Amino acid sequence: MGSPETTSFSSQSSSSKLLFRQLFEKESSTYTYLLADASHPDRPALLIDPVDKTVERDLSLIKDLGLKLIYAMNTHVHADHVTGTGLIKTKVPGVKSVISKASGSKADILIEPGDKIQFGSLFLEVRATPGHTLGCVTYVTGDGPDQHQPRLAFTGDALLIRGCGRTDFQIFTLPKETFVYPAHDYKGFSVSTVGEEILYNPRLTKNEETFKGIMENLNLAYPKMIDIAVPANMVCGLQDMTSKV
Ligand SMILES: N[C@@H](CCC(=O)N[C@@H](CSS)C(=O)NCC(=O)O)C(=O)O
């Protein structure tokens, strides 16, 4: 499958401007998201779920857009690719890696549910969405007069478009118009909304018993990269850097 269409926009509200890009890594079908406050003099930016193989592309885009990368974040310890956060830290001094405390992984900042991640006048809220892994979190753009509306939810593998990587359904307490941006897509989708997934997600519209049956019978192959990716991602991709730099 070729690269799906990806989304990008800049939003202008009374006093803030969210710059947003959705980027794709085709080997693992992973989405990386770039967010920045373009109205702030420093143009602070963050990356969600960067992949080691596409770090050069992401950093080049950040340079082209005149942004200052401050955070390289993960929604969880990925099993199918090595995170780009460790590599980014070696290339951009001052960048802080971020992951949830519950993940058990190493990072500069270990976040917990309810925490806020500030970039300029904008912020992300941390929500616990365990299930796919223990420490999975969803990052949701802030709620408030200066924040982007509708809100954007970066769901990692908890909620995929018309699918899921196992979830506790907390994402569905968000307003129905919230845009859903997952960490992966295997079918060519790039964005959905909470309301759309409540109505049409073929797994999450079923009762608990049927849901369990679906998930127990997915018969997914053993992820190709899992034995390399998980140990590397437990240290935010920082181990064995000499062969990558
Ligand atoms: N073939 C891929 C792995 C595909 C896979 O298992 N994806 C995970 C999320 S990444 S760990 C998943 O939960 N998928 C749910 C689904 O319904 O596909 C590989 O070998 O890397």
Automatic annotation (TrEMBL):
Its cofactor is Fe(2+). GO terms for biological process: glutathione metabolic process; hydrogen sulfide metabolic process. Residues 29-184 form the Metallo-beta-lactamase domain. Signal peptide: none annotated. GO terms for cellular component: mitochondrion. Its main location: mitochondrion. It catalyses: S-sulfanylglutathione + O2 + H2O = sulfite + glutathione + 2 H(+). The keyword Transmembrane does not apply. Gene3D superfamilies: Ribonuclease Z/Hydroxyacylglutathione hydrolase-like (3.60.15.10). Its EC number is 1.13.11.18. GO terms for molecular function: metal ion binding; sulfur dioxygenase activity. It is found in: Mitochondrion. The keyword Iron applies. Belongs to the metallo-beta-lactamase superfamily. Glyoxalase II family. This is persulfide dioxygenase. It comes from Parasponia andersonii (Sponia andersonii).
